[in-house]
Input
Amino acid sequence: MSVDKNRPLDPGQEKIRGQAGAALNSLEGLLEEAEASHLMMFALKKEVFDLLEHGRTAGELAEMLGFDTRKTKAFLDALAAIGLLEKGGLAKNGDGTYRLSSLSALYLKSSSPFCSRELLERRFARLLSPRELEVSLSRPSEGSSVQRSGPNPAKKDPQLFTRIMVQHARGSGNLSKLTHLVCRHPRFFQARRMLDLGGGHGLYAAALCRINPELEGVVFDFPEIVEVARRYIAKTKLESRITTRGGDFYSDFPGEGYQIVLAVNAIHRSPEILRDVLEKVFLSLDSGGVLYLQHRYLNRSRTAPRKAALFYFNRILEVDSFYLPTLREAREAGEKAGFHLTGLFRYGGGDTCLRLERR
Output
């Protein structure tokens, strides 16, 4: 039986074709995102955003980098298309001057205080080739999420690791968001001692100590990290009020006599281990003390939010004992440790903060 290809589709077939077309466009959109990220990382590697800080033509940039002018123009036009450059002063032949967009000026220019180059490079380096991905997925896990410790990426280069954490805290807005949230608590200005668990750079403690002049902070992290943290704290001129303590909070007790504890993207283990850590935090807090537990959390099916699911997949390839809890698991771990949940705050960047209080 022959089929007349010129015959109009019935309404049902037309609907299916429309749905299929939309789905294909969605898949192509994922690939376009990958193409854009490759373009951005190449531009970062060639320091394009620094070279264009004051504006240049495609010909000027091509001469500086040893590129072909015509292809460089297409390269810069593509960067403009994805929002990383702006093009002005157009001539009849389409030539113009390329300048940084507000996005790249803020996050991709080296001289910007919010430059996130190393953070983006680290994320990009996690993208494995199909062969590398197959090898990693085939390798049996040497541990599991019930292990308290695992390879510490900070030990490879503590300074780089801490800089990346600084870039994330500032660039994501988490630093200002959490600081604002903590300060709104009615007992904040009564607090005299706070703990930043896994605090790394110490910027959270510094921000809160600036607002409350009576507050003293303790930054608890791996020994190699607190060595770097002291340099960041010194820049804040708050060394007399912020101290550091090196250790492993999975096994060590963080001290006591705190009224505020922060744990920001720090505890990535199973619900059982999370509960153990939170029990120690509970004992470290005075009655009426508050814990701010801020992390990326998954939903019950562990398939959303998208950022959290992708983050978990990439990290478990690096650390076998890594585990990203669901929001429900984190909430239950806090309650089993003795806390009362008094607030849940979702941030646009993907993090959620649980406010847990010891009564």
User: Anything to note?
Assistant: DSSP finds 14 helices and ten strands in the chain. The mean pLDDT is 90. The domain at 125-357 is CATH 3.40.50.150 (Rossmann fold). Strands lie at 56-57, 85-88, 97-100, 193-197, 216-221, 242-246, 258-264, 285-295, 340-346, 352-357.
